[in-house]
Amino acid sequence: MARTVTLPASLDEAVAALSAMPAAVPVAGGTDLMASVNSGLLRPAGLIGLGRVNELRGWQYQDGHALLGACLTHARMGRPDFAALIPGLAAAARAAGPPQVRNAGTLGGNIVTAAPTGDALPVLAALEATVLLLGPEGAREVPVSHLLTGMDPLRPGELLTHVRVPLLHAPQTFLKATGRTGPGRATASVCVVLDPARRGVRCAVGAVAPMPLRPLEAEAWVASLVDWDGERKLDPEACTAFGEYVAEACIPAPAPDDGSAESGTLSAAVVHLRRTVAALARRALGRALA
Ligand SMILES: Cc1cc2nc3c(=O)[nH]c(=O)nc-3n(C[C@H](O)[C@H](O)[C@H](O)COP(=O)(O)OP(=O)(O)OC[C@H]3O[C@@H](n4cnc5c(N)ncnc54)[C@H](O)[C@@H]3O)c2cc1C
């Protein structure tokens, strides 16, 4: 078990504690971290609890964006006032595990764990959110996608302090499929975000790859069909075609066995996953445009 537990009362104290003990790990809700400790996968030299750092809770408005504290819990993000602000993230938060997990688990922990099944991740990818990081060498801001792909990872001693999300004032949907009834990890998830100011439809697919995937061509194609100055309605056939476009883009056919240009036969698992993603994307788009 950890040899020391530090409970800083401010962000500066938390960064100082982490700098003083680089082998220690920050803990927010502990729903991911303690599972690793309990299973023996992780033996941290120390724990730095973030629960008393008020700067990491709540959110504020800044230049058309919301600046979300890393320690916002899923339960808090699922409430109606938050849903009015960022409906996609609220829907993902409501779907993230059973109530005990939603009460403790945080946005920052979801991002830093970066599990493929992290429900907040496709939403943040579709929203093109950025994360604010603070460490011994100062503050920096990186796109969440760079953090998730490992292009720009968290550096030693750095804390994720906030997530900057653009406020789009338009419908956003998040849907997830699980392999069981009741709360469960996603086998696939889809977020669709409308961006009327840029006449854009943004979509991200979660759980089918190590990080959320953006089907950019499908997004551009469907955005060109939407009547942005009118009712913003689409034929059901166009929604179905969008779903299939997204699924094929995010779940490619396996490479052929013989090295020829022809793609190999799809396994039953791939066919099933494509159908699931296509249905989620079709419904998510239909609901966003409804
Ligand atoms: C039973 C169960 C069901 C679950 N179901 C779901 C689900 O359906 N969907 C889903 O998305 N997740 C699910 N989870 C996973 C988990 O609840 C989430 O990923 C949660 O958001 C993690 O947040 P946390 O605050 O508990 O993170 P912690 O466990 O406290 O930390 C996780 C990691 O992030 C680091 N960290 C935390 N905060 C910071 C910070 N501010 N700066 C730097 N590093 C930080 C920690 O050091 C650790 O490495 C489930 C977990 C359990 C146990």
TrEMBL record:
<dbReference type="InterPro" id="IPR016169">
    <property type="entry name" value="FAD-bd_PCMH_sub2"/>
</dbReference>
<keyword id="KW-0560">Oxidoreductase</keyword>
<dbReference type="InterPro" id="IPR036318">
    <property type="entry name" value="FAD-bd_PCMH-like_sf"/>
</dbReference>
<feature type="domain" description="FAD-binding PCMH-type">
    <location>
        <begin position="1"/>
        <end position="170"/>
    </location>
</feature>
<protein>
    <submittedName>
        <fullName>FAD binding domain-containing protein</fullName>
    </submittedName>
</protein>
<dbReference type="InterPro" id="IPR051312">
    <property type="entry name" value="Diverse_Substr_Oxidored"/>
</dbReference>
<keyword id="KW-0274">FAD</keyword>
<keyword id="KW-0285">Flavoprotein</keyword>
<dbReference type="Pfam" id="PF00941">
    <property type="entry name" value="FAD_binding_5"/>
</dbReference>
<dbReference type="InterPro" id="IPR002346">
    <property type="entry name" value="Mopterin_DH_FAD-bd"/>
</dbReference>
<dbReference type="InterPro" id="IPR016167">
    <property type="entry name" value="FAD-bd_PCMH_sub1"/>
</dbReference>
<dbReference type="InterPro" id="IPR036683">
    <property type="entry name" value="CO_DH_flav_C_dom_sf"/>
</dbReference>
<dbReference type="InterPro" id="IPR016166">
    <property type="entry name" value="FAD-bd_PCMH"/>
</dbReference>
